[in-house]
Amino acid sequence: MHIWFHFTFKLICPSYFQIILQHVLEHGKPHERSAIIKKLTGQIVQMSQQKFASNVIEKCLTFGTPAERQALVDEMLGTTDENEPLQAMMKDQFANYVVQKVLETCDDQQLGLILNRIKVHLNALKKYTYGKHIVLRVEKLVAAGERRISFLTLNPATA
Asked: Domain PUM-HD: where (predicted)?
């Protein structure tokens, strides 16, 4: 009975189900968060392109462990030869917010890799309504990085 209700609820009220998942990701126990993230792995790109599911992916990035975030980012980046998942996400009305969340939550090494992948497409992204959001975020990150580097250069004792 419980399983039947669970699947029926998921099919009838997808937005409510997504809200429950977001709540568990934010307030649940680490093993509960990990179970959700593990279940979603392999579907990150597709889910990021859906209105309610994209919010769940953002919560995964915000509240997941560094290793879980790395796995999610790796899935979004695809292989080194193909840039297609990330490209598609940057142009999508919902997935572009997931890419922005990645830029907010990733560590410095991931950020460098992602920015290198995005830089190649900056001019093309300016032509897309949702790609413009990514361009603005990247420009802010670059400006902030330049300010940080000049601050550290001027004040080496604070580094």
From this structure: 1-142
